[in-house]
Structures are given as C-alpha cells and as structure tokens.
Backbone:
C-alpha cells in the first residue's frame, strides 16, 4: 500500500500532472469568482457552473490521459488513473463551498461521488479510444478525437433524450441510468487496470 | 282503528323521510352568490354521515400560464345526526371549479361551476321581507341579493366580497355580532330609520345616526338617501395588501465577500499544489487531509444558518374600538421545496397551492419567494378617538406617527394621548407612501414593530365616498 502511495506521489509530482492540477484549480477559481453573487438578493448559482466545469475538465483530462496512456505499461495507466482520482478528491472543497451557498436540489452525495465514477469511466473510454486509434494507425488524430468523443457522448444522449453518457447534465440532475452505465464502464476500467500482466499469467501457468 | 292509525301516521313518516333525503347541503357565498377573488362563507350540512372530506379543485390559470390549481380540503368529522361545518374560503377567479364530498373512496356529492358563473362584483345584500322595493335604489351594475337574518355569518372574512347590507326592519332581526363583523370588514351597513320595536337592539349601533366600526360603518338613513349611499366607493382590500406586500421583504443572508473567498480558495489551491509537488508521500496525505478540512470549514462558513426566511407585516384598520387586521407574510426559500404555512391565507402570485381550514402549502423553487395574504381577522383597536384626541392602547412604542392632513406627530408610548397638530411635512417612511393615498383625510397612522396601525376618522362622511 505504501509502495502504491509512493508511486502515486511520484506520478503526481511529475511536471505534466502539477501543471494540469494548477490549471484545473485556476479554472475552478475563475469560475467561482465570475459567478459568485455580490448582492444578497441575487440567487447564488455558482455551484451549477462550477459542477459542470469541474466534470468537463475532469472528463477531458481522463479521456486525454486514457487515450495517450493506452500504449503505456499497466502500472503507468493505473498510477495515472489514480492521479486523476486525486484531482477529484482535491477539488472537493470547491464543490462543497459552492454547494453550501447555492442550495441546489441535487444531493450532496451525488455531487461528491459522480465525478469519481465518471473520471474512472472516462479514463477507460480514453484507453479504448487510444487502443482503437492505434489499431487503425490514426493516433495522430488523438487531440481531435478526445473532445470529439465527449461531444459524441453528449450528442448521443441528446438524440436518445436520455442521460447515459452526458456528464454535463448528470452533474446537476441525478440520473440512475447514467450512474449504472458509468459505474459499469468504471468497473470494467478497474478490471483492466488491476488485471495481472500477461507475462505474469504465463509464468504462473509455466510454474504449474 | 289500526288502519285509521296507519293512514294518519304514514303521511307524517313519509314527510319526515322526504325532508331527510338530502344528506348533504353545501352553500358557498351569500344565497349561493359567489364573489370571485374574495373570501366567501362556506356552509356544509351533512346528515348521518361518518367522516368525510370536502374538496374544491379550482383551476385559476390561463391560456398563457397553464393550469394553476388551488385545492381546498377540509375533513368533516361527521357522525350520526346533523353535522354543520362553517369556514371562509378564498375563491379565486376560476376557469373550472369542481367540488366533491368523499367518504373514503366513495363520492357522496359533487358539483361544478363553469367559467360563465364567475363574477368578481361585490354583493349588495338586502335583509327585507320586500326586497323588490329597494332594488331600484342601487346602481345599474349592482349585484343585489336577498339574505335571511339567520344566514349572516359572524366572521369578518365572510364579508370581504360584500359592499353593503341594507336592513329595512321588515325581516327577522339580525344578530348584532353579524352586523358588527360586517361593518368591521368594510361593509356599509345601512339601517333604515324608524324601525319597528322588535329591532330596537340595532339602535345600539346607531350612535349619532352613524358610526364607523373597523374598516366600515353602520349608518342610519332615510330611504331618500339610499341612492347616494349605495354609490359610495368600496374600500378595496387588494390595494392595502399590495401596499403591505411592498414593505415585507425577507432579508436573505449576504454572500461572502469575493475578496475573502478568493484568498481562502487561493491559499488552499497553492498549499495543495506545493504539498503535492514538494513534500513527498506525507505531502500527498496532508493535501488529501487538507481537502477534508477545507470542505468542512467551507460548509460551516458558507451554509446559511437557515434555509427559509419569513417576514410579516400587518395593518389594523381601526375605528370604534374594533379593527380589521390585514396581514401579509412573505416566505423566501433558499432550497427548492414544499412550504407549509400555519394559518389561513392565499398566495399573491399565480401559483398552485393547497389550503385546508388550518393551513396552506405550496412549492417554491430555489431562491424564490412568495407572499401570503392572510385571511382578514377582527381584533381590538389599539388606537381610538377620545373626542378630538387619539389614545394609544398598545404596549410597543408607536413610531412614525402621521395624521393625514396634519403631518408627522410625536411618538406614542403605551397609554399616551395624541392631540393632532399641524406640522411641517417631512420624508414619509416607505411603508406609508402607498398606504396614505388609500386612507381618508384625518386618518392617524403609526408603526409598532411589524404592525402598522391606522385609525380612521370618527365621522363617516358620505360626501367623501361614504367611508
């Protein structure tokens, strides 16, 4: 467990992660300051803007990292996914602060847990996207494909008039179908990330 | 002999049976005349029925606003014998009006009213054995109906939709309590002079030919004067409610200043980033712990102590030791939810709501507010005329005292007497700006906490509209 923490800390300390963490915080602070009311008669709508921004940034980061790290080692994938989960945990105070002042109808547990589930699920979707594009030898399209996939998810839900994959709507309107679909993808992603490497399985078989 | 006895008694039993074949009798308004957008008396009589539920479903929406349902529900205890239930219900202008009386799942009685039967004109009531004699004295637009003395309620709110009540002495003697309630509600009660001796009690209300009582007046008049009396303007409660509503706005919690917020979240963001970057595994653990601490601190600091805010203000329209109290309560809710309000009232805005004989409930969205116009009630007057002076009988200090036509006056403590003096005009409190134009010249107005007291002039001058 300590080794995992050490490895995670090492992953988080890398320049790319620190830069993205700083950028993530900067975006959240900007959203809060631009939406925060200055008069008591004005409704506080900050949480709605922050929640959607937070989940969009997290989804893009998860899709991006997932697609890029699809060709990396399993350990690197796992650590990157855990680093993104740390992003979610570290941004919870922003969510709670705005939630407390905004009084949304959305339950607090939903606001806290959904980004965790969605981030892991989008990381898995990113792994799938990266692997597919590699198979098609189209990895050069990754910078375009990552936002396109998120837009595709949103468009898919809009077309079906349902909320299975759209994180923007789900972040403010609790949706059981979204939670079920995303939990299933997140569990599949977890299975992929924690699966023993192929060479270890082979060595186990040869020992038998 | 036995056959004769049966022949004699049978018609009697049949008659009794026929008389009792109506288990439910419902009457809304006076003599069945409902005044839309006003409080109306409700009388329900049930015979030999167990517990029942009376329900009105009134759609008061429009083509533009959609369906806005007002539901009134009252549980009638019932039992063997006759059960009488009386209440006052605010009947809004309706698109459809359906009522039912249910016992469990069974509908005992039901009915409906169409849009064409909706009439917001106030009523002119006549208490007379020969009402036709007086009909010509009213204006062409008058909505006249006869009423029996026994049908006059003793509740102030019942008379909100009534403009005048004429008693000519040919009918049964009405109860003084009913006349007092009617007058205090703002009704012009006209008692013709030279009443028969059976009506002698009514003379008690006719000091010096006429007296103001609450928001209305009791006037003794000759038949020749009736036409000018009935053309008198009615004091409209709606204008008073609107004036009160503008003064009762709940104060919502002030948001945290942006600078403090920026410093707090900036410190958190910088500390977290530095801990992750520079402090190794302990730094990561500390950063996660810091997230927990900041979350709890943010909740404590930014969550308002209460989610619902209420402000009430009332106006007592007084004269002759009685006052009609109009009260408004504005409710503001930060979260979305169902608001339960103890007491009777109606909503100021077009919104669906449910009322019972005890309370009302409605849904409010996030950061929304709604004003409840509470049912008018009869209360003792805290301001009263003693000759040319005014005595204050309240306990709180009466501030912002103002006499219309005289100007601002000195504050009054409990038991103080005010002799109105001409004073230089000064800036009026915001609450008075809308109220003063609605009051006749010579009225006294003052504020004690969340209560505004208005004392109408002692004389009821007909040339100024009767009130």
Residues:
């Amino acid at each position: 467990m300590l080794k995992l923490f050490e490895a995670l800390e090492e992953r988080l300390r890398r320049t790319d992660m620190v830069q993205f963490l700083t950028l993530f915080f900067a975006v959240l602070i900007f959203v809060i300051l631009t939406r925060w009311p200055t008069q008591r008669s004005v409704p506080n709508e900050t949480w709605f803007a922050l929640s959607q921004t937070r989940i969009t940034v997290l989804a893009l980061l998860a899709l991006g990292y997932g697609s890029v790290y699809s060709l990396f080692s399993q350990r690197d994938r796992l650590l990157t996914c855990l680093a993104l989960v740390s992003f979610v945990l570290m941004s919870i105070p922003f969510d709670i602060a705005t939630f407390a002042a905004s009084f949304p109808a959305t339950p607090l547990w939903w606001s806290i847990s959904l980004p965790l589930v969605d981030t892991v699920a989008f990381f898995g979707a990113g792994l799938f996207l990266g692997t597919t594009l590699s198979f098609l030898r189209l990895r050069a399209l990754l910078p375009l494909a990552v936002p396109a996939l998120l837009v595709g998810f949103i468009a898919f839900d809009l077309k079906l008039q349902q909320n299975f994959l759209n994180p923007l709507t789900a972040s403010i309107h609790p949706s059981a179908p979204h939670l079920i679909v995303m939990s299933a993808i997140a569990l599949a992603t977890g299975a992929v990330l924690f699966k023993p490497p192929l060479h270890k399985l082979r060595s186990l078989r040869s020992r038998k | 002999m036995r056959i004769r006895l049966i022949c004699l008694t049978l018609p009697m039993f049949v008659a009794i049976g026929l008389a009792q074949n109506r288990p439910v009798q419902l009457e809304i308004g006076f003599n069945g005349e409902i005044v839309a957008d006003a409080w109306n008396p409700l009388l329900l009589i049930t015979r030999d029925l167990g517990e029942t539920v009376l329900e009105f479903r009134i759609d008061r929406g429009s083509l533009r606003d959609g369906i806005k349902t007002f539901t009134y529900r009252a549980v009638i205890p019932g039992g063997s014998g006759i059960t009488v239930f009386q209440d006052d219900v605010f009947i809004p202008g309706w698109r459809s009006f359906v009522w039912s009386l249910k016992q469990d799942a069974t509908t005992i009685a039901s009915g409906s009213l169409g849009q064409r039967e909706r009439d917001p004109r106030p009523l002119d009531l006549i208490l007379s054995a020969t009402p036709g004699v007086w009909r010509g004295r009213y204006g062409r637009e008058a909505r006249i109906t006869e009423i029996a003395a026994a049908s006059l309620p003793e509740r102030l709110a019942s008379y909100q939709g009534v403009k005048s009540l004429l008693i000519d002495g040919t009918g049964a003697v009405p109860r003084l309590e009913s006349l007092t309630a009617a007058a205090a509600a703002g009704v012009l009660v006209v008692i013709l002079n030279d009443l028969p001796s059976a009506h002698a009690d009514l003379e008690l209300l006719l000091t010096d030919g006429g007296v103001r009582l609450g928001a209305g007046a009791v006037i003794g008049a000759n038949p020749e004067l009736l036409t000018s009396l009935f053309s008198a303007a009615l004091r409209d409660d709606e204008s008073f409610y609107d004036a009160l509503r503008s003064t009762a706005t709940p104060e919502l919690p002030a948001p945290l200043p942006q600078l403090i917020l920026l410093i707090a979240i900036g410190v958190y963001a910088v500390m977290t980033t530095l801990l992750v970057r520079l402090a190794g595994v302990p730094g990561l653990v500390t950063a996660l712990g810091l997230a927990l601490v900041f979350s709890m601190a943010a909740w404590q600091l930014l969550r308002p102590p209460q989610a619902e805010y209420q402000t009430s203000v009332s106006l007592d329209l007084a004269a002759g030791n009685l006052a009609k109290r109009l009260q408004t309560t504005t409710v503001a809710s930060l979260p979305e939810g169902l608001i339960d309000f103890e007491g009777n009232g109606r909503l100021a805005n077009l919104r669906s709501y449910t009322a019972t004989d005890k309370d009302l409930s409605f849904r409010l969205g996030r950061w929304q507010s709604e004003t409840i116009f509470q049912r008018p009630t009869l209360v003792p007057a805290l301001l009263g005329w003693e000759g040319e002076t005014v005595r204050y009988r309240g306990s709180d200090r009466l501030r912002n005292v103002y006499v219309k036509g005289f100007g601002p006056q000195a504050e009054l403590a409990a038991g103080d007497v005010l002799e109105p003096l001409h004073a230089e005009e000064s800036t009026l409190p915001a609450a008075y700006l809308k109220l003063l134009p609605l009051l006749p010249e010579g009225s006294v107005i003052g504020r004690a906490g969340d209560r505004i007291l208005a004392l109408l002039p002692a004389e009821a001058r007909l040339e100024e509209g009767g009130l």
Residues 312 and 329 of chain B are 4 Å apart (CA to CA). The first helix of chain B runs from residue 2 to 19. The helical segments of chain B are 2-19, 176-185, 226-230, 237-245, 258-278, 280-302, 430-435. The interface with chain A takes residues 251-256, 258, 261-262, 265-266, 268-269, 272-273, 276-277, 280-281, 283-285, 287-288, 291, 294-295, 298-299, 301-304, 307, 334-336, 366-367 of chain B (CB under 8 Å).
